[in-house]
Design brief:
This protein has 14 helices and 15 strands. By secondary structure, the chain is of the alpha/beta class. α9 runs antiparallel to α12 and α10 (331-353) runs parallel beside α12. The structure holds one RNA strand.
Length: 467
RNA sequence: GGUGAGGUGGCAGAGCGGCUAUGCGUUCGCCUGCAGAGCGAAUCUAUAGGGGUUCGAAUCCCUUCCUCACCUCCA
């Protein structure tokens, strides 16, 4: 498959070897995760699901930054340990992302558990002359890495004139960034240079090199990490190993809220907890995959509401398929179904294989839903046709990480009993009685669909925004 | 100011030299005891403006205008 690489600014072939290594920059655990984090993580989760569906073994590593000024500040404010803060938000992370049907990564390494690796990396850099010790810490000497700026396409002299870099007289160059910061307070660790904490960028270099080695296939994250985070990671890692760090840099666009940047200061962040409660996992995932991953997407109520309608069609389709009954298949319908499945699978796979075009892939999927619903509407959706469509339908749902709410066998037979009673009453023209049963069924979260010959039903996911 | 990404029908969003997706919306139908869901038909030939290149451009080139992101911690 092909993926756009930020570094070379071209689509690069990911020559699908037996296994693909992915390092995804995760979150700093100082607050609840939000929809922006969710988009990046859902994109990579879906990518992983797609690759796996193609028979590729994926090794996915996603870190937690659990040592950072924001965490420490929060710990001070609440008068608890930094560890308490980070573990609280790691728990929050898993609660949210498990609910979003995100498959667990192979490993979630934490910065605090890799201090030794970071120290040895820094030692290596100091030894090779890429880093130096100043009064405040150990710094990476940007001027020593001649390719600095290659990812973010920045020129070193322009960066300097940018003048928005932190003022620190102990640095040799304003652009130099901290690998290790001296600090007497907690949390801190002893190092060959003094007590302190690692800088942010070094953790990802240390952990990705440890678990994936150098020149791994994909390094990913949000677009906002391109500079300085990923730029600095490249500088450190390539200076240390002398080898290429990652083959492809894949960056996910930002989520805006009603066209505005989402930020704490504007107070418009949408937490994962919030969007889950309001829209549920399927709508959120569909929303996050609705545009090309590299472009920004805008969170707006109207768009999300539109997504609910699409999701209802999928639910409807699913229940039409599983509740189809025996009967002779119309030859023509069977042909239509077969061709639709073949067509859709091709489009779906090609779209995802071509720079992971989830927008195109989902529209292909919706075409199959439409076809199935058309056959159902003409009363021709019999078991043998459903059997043609269902495997492809379920497979694509799974790649997209979507999941229709199912019904237990007990509920199923109860529903069928109620439907039979209702249909009896309808024949007797006792519509009051029939409507009362419909109400009873509806209270179970089930919607009835009256066809000419029979009545089927579907379980609709409860969506907060539906009220 | 620098760097990058973009500007496509009422909206969302693909296409990246010829066949102009797809979905939502809107209108009218079908179905139904009613309702919901679904289905059908219609609507919508849109590609920021101006120049080129080409037999042919939303797609390539030039130019103008505009938007967004990043350049500080940030997914």
């Amino acid at each position: 498959m092909k993926i756009f690489d930020t570094l070379s600014v071209t689509e690069k072939e990911l020559d699908a070897p037996a296994s693909i290594r992915i390092y995804l920059c995760g979150v700093t655990v100082y607050d609840d995760s939000h929809i922006g984090h969710a988009r990046t993580i859902i994109v990579f989760d879906t990518l992983r699901r797609f690759l796996e569906s193609q028979g590729v073994r994926v090794k996915l590593i996603q870190n937690f930054t659990d040592v950072d000024d924001k965490i420490i500040n929060r710990a001070r404010t609440e008068n608890v340990s930094a560890d308490k803060i980070s573990s609280r938000y790691i728990a929050n992370y898993f609660e949210g992302f498990d609910s979003l049907n995100v498959k667990r990564a192979d490993l979630y390494p934490k910065a605090t558990e890799h201090i030794a690796e970071m120290i040895s990396l820094i030692q290596g850099l100091v030894g090779k002359g890429f880093a130096y010790v100043s009064a405040n810490g150990v710094y990476f000497a940007v001027s020593k890495f001649t390719e600095y700026g290659k990812l973010s396409k920045k020129k070193i002299d322009e960066l300097i004139s940018g003048a928005r870099v932190e003022v620190d007289d102990t640095k040799k160059d304003p652009l130099d960034f901290a690998l290790w910061k001296f600090a007497e307070d907690e949390p801190g660790w002893d190092s060959p240079w003094g007590h302190g904490r690692p800088g942010w960028h070094i953790e990802c270099s240390a952990m990705s090199l440890k678990y994936l080695g150098s020149d791994f296939e994909i390094h990913g994250g949000g677009r906002d990490l391109i500079f300085p985070h990923h730029e600095n990671e490249i500088a450190q890692s390539e200076s240390y190993t002398g080898k290429n760090f990652a083959k492809i840099w894949m960056h996910v666009g930002m989520v805006t809220i009603n066209g505005e940047k989402m930020s704490k200061s504007l107070g418009n962040t949408k937490s994962v907890d919030f969007v889950l409660k309001k829209w549920g996992p399927n709508i959120v995932r569909l929303f996050c995959l609705s545009g090309h991953y590299s472009k920004p997407i805008d969170y707006s109520e109207d768009l999300l509401k539109e997504t609910i309608i699409k999701w209802r069609q999928v639910e409807n389709c699913y229940y039409e398929l599983i509740l189809s009954d025996d009967g002779a298949a119309d030859i023509n319908d069977e042909k239509i179904a077969r061709e639709a499945v073949k067509e859709t699978e091709k489009e779906f796979t090609e779209a995802l294989g071509s720079d992971f075009n989830t927008s195109l892939a989902t529209s292909a999927f919706f075409k199959l839903v439409k076809t199935a619903n058309q056959i159902a509407a003409s009363e021709h959706l019999v078991r043998s046709i459903a059997d043609i469509v269902l495997p492809a339908f379920e497979q694509m749902l799974d790649v997209l990480g979507l999941s229709v709410v199912r019904v237990s066998p007990e509920e199923k037979s109860k529903i069928n009993d109620l439907i039979n009673r209702r249909n009896m009453l309808r024949i007797q023209k006792d519509f009051h009685g029939a409507d009362a049963i419909r109400k009873e069924i509806s209270d179970m979260g089930i919607v009835l669909i009256d066809h000419k010959r029979r009545t089927i039903w579907m379980r609709q996911e409860k969506i907060g925004a539906d009220g």
